[in-house]
Structures are given as C-alpha cells and as structure tokens.
From TrEMBL:
Pfam families: NamZ_C (PF20732), NamZ_N (PF07075). GO terms for molecular function: peptidoglycan beta-N-acetylmuramidase activity. It comes from Catellatospora coxensis. Residues 1-27 form the signal peptide. This is DUF1343 domain-containing protein. Residues 54-261 form the Peptidoglycan beta-N-acetylmuramidase NamZ N-terminal domain.
Amino acid sequence: MRRRNLITGGIAAGALGATALAGPATAAPKPRRVQTGLDRLVAERFATLAGQKVGVVSNPTGVDADYRHLVDLIHESGRVDLVAAFGPEHGFRGSAQAGGSEGTGVDARTGITVYDAYGASLAKWEELMTRAGVETVVFDIQDVGVRFYTYIWTMYTSMVAAARLGLRYVVLDRPNPIGGRAYGPMMTPEFTSGVGLKEIIQQHGMTVGELARFFNAEFLPAEAGRPVDLDVVACKHWKRDMLAADTDVPWVMPSPNMPTPDTALTYPGTGLFEGVSSISEGRGTTRPFELVGGLATDFDYHWSDRLNNRDLPGVRFREAYFVPTIAGHHPPLLNKLCAGVEVKVTDRAAYDPIRTAVAMLVEARKYPAFAWRADSYDPVRPYWVDKLTGSPRLRTMIDAGADVDDVVGAWSQELAAFEQRRRPYLLY
C-alpha cells in the first residue's frame, strides 16, 4: 500500500506545489521545474524499486534534469538489482534510423545486457524477460504524442507480456511535448500494424503514463487475460496545455529525425508524408518533418502559394528547396533536389498539425507526379497511409476530390468519443 500511495500521491502534490509556487497575486510568476517521473524516483532514492530485479525499457531520452540516464542512476544507487535493459526502435543508444535497431549487446558502463526489443512479439518479450530474470519492468522513454511513433507500442506489448508473466510494470511519466489535446482519425481494427496496434486517435494527447492506464483497463484484460500490476510515477507541475517549450524538461532527441520540439509539433501531420512515395518528409536535413517536398522537376512554388492562400490558423509556408540525405521511405529522392515547403508554425496554440497536413496533401494531390506509397508485402492493405491514418478513408476522400473541411469533419464523432473514453485515465 505504501508503494501505491507514494506514486499516485504525486498528482495531488503537484497541484499543491503549483499553488505554492504561484506566490502573491501581485508578484511576478516564478519559474518552476517540471519534474518527470524519473526526477521523482531519484528524489525518493528509488524507494519504489528497492530490492527488486528490474529490467529497463529505455533509450537516450531516459534522463533526469541533469541529463543523467536512468540505467546509470539505478546502477550507481546500489539499491536496485538492475538485471537488463531493452532497446526499442532506433536502439537503446538511439543510433539506428527509422525501422532499425542496434542488436543485443553489453552496456560498457554498467555491464548489463541490453536486449534488442524492437518489433518483439509477445512470445519474444516473454522469452527476454524470463531469460533476464526480471521481476519489475520500468519504462522511461520520451514519446512525442502520435499513434504512429512506435515507442508506445513497445510499451503496450511489453505490458501485455509482463501481465502474462505476472510481473510488475512501472512507468516513469514524462510530459507530452505537443500537449494534451487530441486530434485526428481513429485507428480501425482492420488496419492495425506496428505503427498502430490498437484503437486510439492519431494525436492522442496523452502522456505515456496516461496511455499505460488506458491500455491496462481497455485492452489488456482481453489480450493478456488480466491487467498488469501497474504503477505510474506521475510528473509534477505539468499541465495539459503545456508544450515542450513551456517546460524546463531536458530535450534529448527521441529518434535521429526528431531533433527538436519544433519537429515534434509538426510530426502528427507531416508524418503522413511517409505514406506518399513521391514526396520526402525531409529526412536527413536539419528540419525533418518541417521540410516537405518532391523532385524539383515535379513540384514547384505553387504549392506554398496555394497553401498560404488558404490562411490556415497558426501556420505559414515558405517555398523551400532541399536535398534528402537519408533514403527513408523514399529511395528515389535520395540526394536529389526537392522542391516544396517549409512548415513555419506562427501560433502554437492555434496550429492544428493534422488539419494542416490534410491541406498539404489536398494541394499536393493536384500535381501529376503525386503518388501514394504502396507496399508489396501487404497486398490486402497496400497503402501505407491507410496504416498511418487507421483506415482508407483519408486517402479515398482526397482521391475523390474532397476538400479539407470534409476530410477533417469525417472523424469528428470518433474523436469526440475517444476524448470521452480516455477521460477516466487522465492524470493532469
């Protein structure tokens, strides 16, 4: 009972702390530190993990306010039996590109085995956890708040495996860098994949701790036969309307092409261009997911002009030219001059990344060279954008000539239903 009170009590403590820090009505607001779950764990001297055999699911983002990594801190504490680490997509050290990992090896600093867990099946997760002798799994990764960013599915699958093995699961929560509002379409069961295993909204507006609570109640009883023994170490002083720029939480690149919080802000929308074979989302440039374009022989300045004429809220478009230096999902565009747009967010509060991306797709579809990306390995569901958006609806509506309001309006009811469904699991 003490353990659970220690963790869930952080929510009330965060509210009280925020009030105390506000000060007199006439005083200027004082800066405050948003504490992550890891920051709280360190402050409490790892009490909730003491004496347990722990396996950590993390990557370079699992750092405290002084950029010290969770694995190193646990190892140095001497209070926790650290038996393994598990690396997601891009690897434990974050060096691999999209769709890649680093393999299994030994961490030089701590001497523990780091297992490659990217894309691991339930059976593989169970085998790895059993081999390592794990009693408690700890998850600490900075998510970016989008369904097709795969870390949340690493969390989900490892939660199911832990439930089936009767293990404890602890999530060290972190702020959602793009805030707590939900946008976009719902995943449908027919189009689940590694970029969307379960039915949640595209920009879910939840922290990983909130998602873990949602998963545990809504999906694990059916898939694992029971919920996992879950604890969430909540953040303190974070509110749902905060973006990464509003906090002092250290930013470490969650993946090689997610360099800044600005990238994360546009990613829920421009990530959809992974589903267009003729257009690069700027991988290998200094502004991935903000620079978007196709071959300069096929696309031109009219794209930015048409988008700016739409006067979309919170954003402008700069005519842009760039050369992708990473093939990513678009090998024919590698090292070729591309023409397109740079997405310039002018008002973070007004900006809707998914609506903006729909407008970008509608205008790009007018170019003869535009082509949806088709994957031959899945002839039944060949279009990658359908897996990203959760169904064929967006693609077929744009192909049929639908404009932005029609496309966005098509998911209004499912979005409202999701917002209602997630409400019991929100912590902030």
